[in-house]
Specification:
The structure is a homodimer.
Chain A lengths: L1 E5 L3 H13 L4 E5 L12 H5 L14 H6 L3 E3 L3 E6 L4 E5 L5 E5 L2 E4 L3 E3 L16 E2 L4 H14 L3 E5 L3 H12 L3 E5 L11 H13 L3 E3 L2 E9 L2 E8 L2 E7 L1 E4 L3 E3 L2 H5 L23 E3 L6 E3 L3 E3 L4 H15 L13 E5 L2 E7 L2 H6 L4 E9 L10 E9 L5 E9 L4 H13 L24 H13 L9
Parallel strand pairs in A: 1-2, 1-7, 2-3, 7-18, 9-16, 10-11, 10-16, 11-12
Antiparallel strand pairs in A: 4-5, 5-6, 8-17, 13-14, 14-15, 19-20, 21-22, 22-25, 23-24, 24-25
Helix pairs in contact in A: 1-8
Chain lengths: 463, 463
């Protein structure tokens, strides 16, 4: 039995590890486009901030660790064609030599590639011009070289999502003046604007110049540096800096599977079922290149490292003949921005409306632990519940680093996983000790506040 | 409608707040034995450590806050008799005057009292002798006076449970040499000894002298101070110190309800059903004086502040005519001891065996966040699962303060609440960002390790 796997990031490596864990006799070959399998792409901003060094420590596991599990790595090898009928994978090495890898089962984890969001110039300008994206170790080395050799003093970051915010912090920490451009009305658009505003304030407090409602049309290179042009609140807007980092999302990297006959679904990602089958015989796929089964939304596209790990693990198990099923994402995410942490799980109100729910939301502030014990901070918590049956649909939190926001969101994620009502959250037996909580934990104080503020008559806590 | 409530601690005040929240027209009278309603008894050790000052800040709410909600407080008033048939509560004030309070519904939250665990001398010696317990603000003031006026240099703490450990830290921080005596083989006997040993090492590292396997028989007062005598590993043992603090558990305070005809159950606590009915007409009870409905154990006695809050809230709602039901405890607890935090939820192996399960346990270490980001620490996690159906029965954790142990235990608590299998924990969409987690969170790494180490053949992750 030979499983070939394309992709050395979360999905591919998870699949390979799972297959080898379950069956020490299976042959597993992982085809990796670069020399950097199993690197923590999520950790790259912390390399630039100086928190992580050297860059090698960003590897979840070294190549030697991976090969010690019994998998074979084919590094610097690009998968170029899948011969579904013949069960052959065509690959090309760095000198251009093409060869075939025969397989019994194939798992595709080709991930996603940075989007250029229609911005003119992004496809033409590159690292040599001072225009960067950040999605691979190659991108990392290019930016690192730029920072070392050209010591830019100013940077424009296009985008204020997770990576954009983390990079705003990292570049600011290095003494670079950062202008952060965000298309929408508030940064971190995965949260409601009232919570995003807390992150906005934190950025400003640390010297980042934030320009929301700015639509970037083009990036051009001129004698004074790189010029980003577009509109801000409908008016012409232009800003020049030494360096431009475009982090405006990703698009699924699907060409290999599409050429082989796979179907596309939500977000133009490859359709898979919950077992990670593509529909092509003996071909599985997982990770940022495939659609996401969401427990509340059904089929969507929501690329996240955690999901890639789960999907990859399932593909690895099922390629061996298993029957694992992906239980579905809730879009749980967390990000640290300077001294704050933001987290979310489930749906926000507009997402819930689009999915056919009848949501209502309420925001509360609750101390992370008893205020009498030093170091207590309020956490801002926004709860979205369904008006008809009071099911908990989503939660968003912003709190000071150290207030256990990211693990508190996990309680909500586990609750939504099980379809709990907002009121039933108060039935959970959560831990309490004064330095770390309250008799009603902050997550329960927020759900009780939702009930008080959204219903005329408080309903039973034991609904 | 008039609801009388006996007890100004967690259960009584929670009941009063809930009744007033649900019905602003109901009259609520809370009879409080001392002058300190709604004080955080769990916070007392932090007053002694100096973290909390002044003592008034230990109040969850002031008397004025409470009365602002519309409840009436009868402070310094002891409930002496319940006339069930006549719906009258007899009370006595501090000068000995007896009076009757008529009620429509009565809620009893008389709590528990410190146990003397059969130790000779504990019932006779008191604060004036240098022998203390710690269960009320009165006890707090007595110990405070002792520390201020007599500046003891040495202390013996009998017991190494939550309060005992917190007080070992508090007195050590004040420069007092602490000897901590523990009956069993390891401190913090609510955890398995291999995890308790981590706490033991932490105590020793901070100068606390820990003597396990020590059975205290007597406390006597002599010219050189207080002598605690008994056996250590079967040999005679004696130790003398300036101060003795006995924190060896509590017994439910039930005389009022027993005299009124209530039945006792587990742990000699008052029997109540999930609605907090005592079985006596119009009499409800909640808190440390009543039995605990446990989701895995059925009826038991497990006094915890979090449970008292929940039970009190339910009693307050149902006394008004509601139909709330206590969903059951899982015994979730957390404690900070110097730089470590320990937490647990659900059952340990011997508890699970006693309850008819077929448990097996495994211990793993998992980093609280990606090791490449500064400040990462391994968390020791012990998972207990049922061999027959792989249901998660319990989890115990010990980690450095700051590793979000107490909120990670909540994920397990929520999972056990819903009867999840050990393997299904890997299906949960938990948050990840490198400074605060891993793509598989520590709670998932531990459950995956349980499966690997306890089953011959790894079963599907999607059981």
């Amino acid at each position: 039995m030979h499983i070939a796997i394309i992709g050395g990031s979360d999905a591919g490596i998870s699949a390979a590890l799972r297959a080898r864990e379950l069956d020490p006799n299976v042959d597993v070959t992982v085809v990796v486009a670069d020399r950097y399998p199993n690197f923590s792409i999520c950790g790259i901003p912390y390399y630039f901030s100086g928190d992580v060094k050297p860059w090698q420590s960003l590897a979840h596991r070294t190549s030697a660790d991976l090969e010690a599990t019994g998998m074979s790595l084919r590094l610097d090898t690009l998968a170029t064609r899948i011969d579904v009928a013949g069960r052959n994978l065509e690959v090309r090495d760095t000198v251009g030599t093409t060869s075939l890898i025969g397989y019994d089962e194939l798992i595709v984890g080709t991930g996603a590639v940075p989007s250029s969001a229609g911005i003119v110039g992004l496809d033409e300008l590159g690292p040599e011009d001072g225009v960067h994206v950040l999605h691979s170790m190659g991108d990392t080395f290019a930016l690192d070289r730029h920072l070392d050799e050209r010591t830019p003093r100013t940077a424009i970051i296009i985008g204020a999502g997770y990576v954009g915010l983390e990079m705003a912090e990292a570049l600011s920490v290095r003494g670079i003046h950062v202008t952060q451009l965000q298309r929408g009305p508030e940064v971190l658009s995965t949260l409601d604007p009232e919570l995003g505003a807390l992150i906005h304030t934190e950025l400003t407090r640390h010297g980042v110049e934030v320009v929301t409602d700015s639509k970037v049309a083009s990036v051009t290179r001129g004698p004074d540096g790189l010029t980003v042009a577009g509109t801000h609140l409908g008016q012409p807007f232009e800003r020049t800096a030494d360096l431009v980092l475009a982090v405006v999302g990703v698009v699924p990297n699907t060409s290999l599977l599409v050429d082989a006959g796979a179907r596309l679904g939500a977000g133009n990602a490859v359709m898979v079922d919950e077992t990670m089958r593509t529909g092509l015989p003996n071909v599985w796929a997982a990770g940022d290149g495939v659609i996401t089964h969401h427990r509340l939304l059904g089929l969507t596209y929501l690329p996240l490292g955690t999901t890639s790990h789960k999907q990859g693990r399932i593909a690895g198990e099922n390629a061996l003949g298993g029957s694992a099923r992906f239980a579905g994402s809730l879009g749980t995410q967390a990000v640290k921005v300077f001294d704050l942490v933001a987290a979310r799980t489930g749906l926000r109100e507009h997402e819930a409306v689009a999915a056919g729910f009848d949501p209502i939301s309420a925001t509360a502030a609750a101390d992370d632990h008893k205020a009498y014990f030093p170091g207590s901070h309020p956490i801002t918590i926004r709860i979205t519940g369904n008006q008809s049956d009071h099911s908990l649909l989503g939660a968003q939190m912003v709190g000071t680093y150290g207030t256990e926001v990211s693990k508190r969101i996990d309680t909500y994620a586990t609750a939504i996983h099980h379809g709990m009502t907002v009121e039933a959250i108060s039935e959970l037996d959560l831990s309490y000790t004064p330095p770390l909580g309250s008799p009603w934990d902050a997550v329960q104080i927020a759900t009780q506040a939702w009930t008080r503020s959204t219903t005329q008559r408080v309903v039973s806590a034991a609904v």
